[in-house]
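Weekly modeling sync, notes
Attendees: S.R. (lead), two postdocs, one rotation student

Agenda item 3: backlog of single-chain predictions. S.R. asked that every request posted to the team notebook include the full sequence so nobody has to chase files. The rotation student volunteered to paste the first one in as an example of the format we agreed on. Action items at the bottom.

Example entry:
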Amino acid sequence: MSNEPTGATSTGTTMSPQELAVASAIRRYEERLAKDPTSLGFAVLADLYRKAGRVDEAIATCREGLRRHPQYATARLILAKALISGQDFAGALAEIEAILRVSPKDVQCHRLAAEVHRRLGRLDDAVRHLEVAASLDPGDRESHALLGLLRAEGSVGDSAVMRLLGDDTFVTDAFGTLCLEQGLADEAALVFTRLLRKDPDNVAARERLEAALRVRSRRKG
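Predicted structure, as returned to the notebook:
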């Protein structure tokens, strides 16, 4: 059993307060699961592993727990998130689809399915799931905003750069990268979305779209 976290890792680096809290919680849930292997707490432990970057342990913990509790949808969703972290998008989709077969109105699953399809360059499938999420939760502003970007139907704002994107003249990798470097996340996302619309197999555009969306997410808090 691990010792109580002290703030220093095995490499000598200092842990942040958030990392300390996660490490402490991992220890508590490991102890709980050791005492009762049938506990539903395995899902929380797996999610903590995922947040700590221990993806393989998160996946293994979920799969072991789901063998005992196959109907536990929350654990299956956590497994899907861990598989996404491990870049196993096909595996993640299989878990998400298993949940949606039972709970077709699960908003969180539709959002996650949209993320996976987007990261695979399947923008139409991503839009389809976001449309369902937005219809199920009309107050979901993030899904509505992402729909505006991923549909790539004209500009989604009134900035000077967005007006430039009224046609395809500036829809280039170079211009999108420049927007990203300048912190223009929405504009960059629109450029890379349009590039993906033209070529779904454009891996560079796919990666830069994700980078733009990460910047956008951090900016919105």
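Discussion: group reviewed the output briefly. The chain has twelve helices and no strands.
Action items: rotation student to repeat for the remaining queue; S.R. to check formatting next week.
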